[in-house]
Amino acid sequence: MLPWREQIEIHPRWIGNLAELTELRLNENLLTELPETIVNLNRLRMLTLYGNRLSFLPEWIGKLTSLEELYASNLGLESLPTTIGNLTKLREFTLHQNRIRELPLSFGKLESLREFLFSDNPLNPELAAAYKEGLDAVKRYLRAKAEVQVVLNEAKLILIGEGEVGKSCLLGALRGDPWEKVAGLPSTHGIEIKPVKVTDSATGTEITLNGWDFGGQRVYRPRTSCSSAHRRSIWWCGNRERGHRRVR
Ligand SMILES: Nc1nc2c(ncn2[C@@H]2O[C@H](COP(=O)(O)OP(=O)(O)O)[C@@H](O)[C@H]2O)c(=O)[nH]1
Ligand SMILES: [Mg+2]
Fold it and tell me: What does the pLDDT read at residue 67?
């Protein structure tokens, strides 16, 4: 245990060398972030953080897998990292007086949790009702939420512009269609929707962009402007005179 006589703003770096440390009380200081050296304290069973100025708990906190007690109230936290679910020995977790609305699904993996104080947070109404019933109800709520959560990984790719600027050919090229097939296509009438599969290089997740290929003729313009209200979409705009292409 480290008793502090004065409020500290900067956390001493050498603290990460105290590999045998089991309790660290940093409450009511002026810390704005936790230095990562704490991650070396893999015997830490108790971490007291309340009353600092941390606005988030770092992802690496999930590596402190010996933690049994974590006191993180009155910090201004808006969310918890998903890695919190790795703290499977955590018995006591206080989080009151923060700004948390929702818990990560991984919170449901905290099997050892017995004491959980979460009052004075702007919880979403369903979670607030579950919290009033107790920890089991909170876990039930999270399980139910996980079951209904369907990840679609889809977005709209909308191509608009004058006729004959190359919208349909561009969509065909993005899809990997052979040029001979797309170049000879008749002018588009109305809207054609064709999928483009892409892979997120960071996560390897496959995403389907539903390519909306609009006819560029004047008669279709009202329809194009109606569709501009769609959210979560990528736009490609082609202009024949200026050769202008814009993506947003
Ligand atoms: N040279 C050239 N011609 C293109 C290119 N893209 C499309 N075209 C031609 O432009 C014409 C109109 O293309 P299209 O994709 O149907 O235009 P849209 O009306 O905007 O859908 C077609 O005859 C295409 O062969 C390009 O990058 N280079
Ligand atoms: Mg076309």
Answer: 98
Residue at token pair 């953080």? 49
Region 219-229: mean pLDDT is: 55
**Complete domains list, the chain, with CATH:** 2-150 (3.80.10.10), 154-242 (3.40.50.300)
Reported pTM = 0.54
Closest C-alpha residue for ligand 1 atom 6: 166
pLDDT of residue 200: 84
- CB contact at 8 A, 113 and 68: no
CA-nearest residue, atom 10 of ligand 1: 166
Q: What is the pLDDT of residues 1-22, one digit of tens each?
A: 344 445 665 666 778 888 899 9
CA-wise closest residue to 72 among 51, 100, 99: 51
Neighbours of 121 (CB within 10 A): 20
Ligand 1 binding pocket, CB closer than 6 Å = 163-169, 183, 185, 187-188, 216
**Over the stretch 37-54, which tens digit does the pLDDT of each residue have?**
999 999 999 999 998 888
Residue 2 has a pLDDT of 46
**Residue 236 β-bridge partners:** 159, 247
